[in-house]
Design goal:
This protein is mainly β. It has one helix and nine strands, in the order ββββββαβββ. It has a single domain, classed as Ribbon (Umud Fragment, subunit A). A hairpin with a 6-residue loop joins strand 7 and strand 8. The chain is globular.
């Protein structure tokens, strides 16, 4: 059943020309202070704390055509097409598709296959792996602003990762 009521959500810009936000701000939360709002009529109920990003230029995703409004949630939700708005320490936020996540919870054998690093088992008389376990914890994103570019971002550098919950074309 279609929800005919309109809701207002803030419009946010991830542009580097924004006056209120510079890379390096504490947690990058100033970017969400917006006086600009838009009204949308989504066909389903949206999670709390949503905001919209207008896709103005070319985006390397068929799911987000130019001119559409991408709606992201600050709360936990399932991402459409695995697309997220991502805030990274000392960088401007970007839109991207989450391709892979490496965690310390994964098996050691799969980690060796991905990174091909020597482990204590491969280095005689070694007691400690030459690669810190924290280096294995990273997110791999396809950056929509830079076609063909994959970004590997350590988990410790991620400030926030908001899932795409709705697209108004």
């Amino acid at each position: 059943m279609k929800n005919d009521s309109k809701i207002s959500i803030p419009l946010v810009s991830f542009s580097s020309s924004r006056e209120r936000w510079e890379p390096g701000d504490e947690r990058g939360e100033k970017i969400f202070l917006s006086n600009s709002y838009t009204r949308i009529s989504p066909p389903m109920e949206l999670p709390d704390s949503c905001y919209g990003v207008k896709i103005e230029g070319a985006c390397d995703s068929l799911f987000l055509p130019p001119g559409c409004l991408a709606v992201f949630s600050k709360t936990g939700a399932t991402a459409l097409e695995n697309i997220y708005a991502v805030g990274v320490q000392e960088e401007f936020p970007f839109l991207g598709k989450w391709m892979q996540k490496e965690t310390s919870e994964g098996s050691a054998s799969s980690r060796r296959k991905v990174f091909m690093v020597p482990t204590p088992m491969h280095v005689p008389d070694s007691r400690v792996s030459p690669i810190a376990p924290s280096l294995h914890q990273a997110f791999l994103f396809k950056d929509f602003a830079n076609p063909g570019k994959l970004r590997v971002i350590p988990v410790s550098k991620i400030l926030w990762k908001h899932p795409l919950v709705y697209v108004q074309k």
